[in-house]
Amino acid sequence: MADVTIRPAGSRATKTASSDSFTGTVLQDSMAAPQAPSRTSATLVTFTPGARTNWHTHKTRQVLVATQGTGMGQVKDKPPRILHAGDVAEVPPGLVHWHGAVAGHLSAHISFVETNGPDNTS
Questions:
Q1: Strand ranges (DSSP E) for 22-85?
Q2: Are 52 and 93 in contact, with CB atoms under 8 Å apart?
Q3: Does residue 2 sit within a domain?
Q4: Range of 82's domain?
Q5: For residue 30, what is the domain's CATH number?
Q6: Residue 75, domain member (yes or no)
Q7: Short-list 114, 107, 27, CA closest to 73
Q8: Does the residue 74 lie in any domain?
Q9: Which value, in Å, is the radius of gyration of the alpha carbons in the chain?
Q10: pTM above 0.90, yes or no
Q11: Would you give per-residue pLDDT tens digits along the chain (122 residues)?
Q12: Measuring CA to CA, how many Å separate 113 from each of 12, 22, 42?
């Protein structure tokens, strides 16, 4: 019989995000990797004050669940919007956007995205 898998927080390695995809210091903690038939990944992303993603898109919808601090996101050609802990942002496929922390504040969110392989899970 199947059972629930529990991965203790201490069992997950935190990595520094690549400067190819982010500005400033950003930490990533993989919470769930896709397991067939599911293609959904979940990553806890922590932004130091003022850090953010570069402009980017995803092939599938991205859901960001703000968990800490004050974040911000922007869609190309629109004004930036603030994200507070508990807010949920849904980003449609192909939408050019960025997200991160406002100056002077940490920000963290869990990013859920479907993938067929390596993807920017910010």
A1: 22-23, 26-32, 40-47, 52-53, 62-75, 81-84
A2: no
A3: no
A4: 14-114
A5: 2.60.120.10
A6: yes
A7: 107
A8: yes
A9: 14
A10: no
A11: 789 988 888 888 899 999 999 999 999 999 998 888 889 999 999 999 999 999 999 999 999 999 999 999 999 999 999 999 999 999 999 999 999 999 999 999 999 998 765 444 45
A12: 19, 17, 7
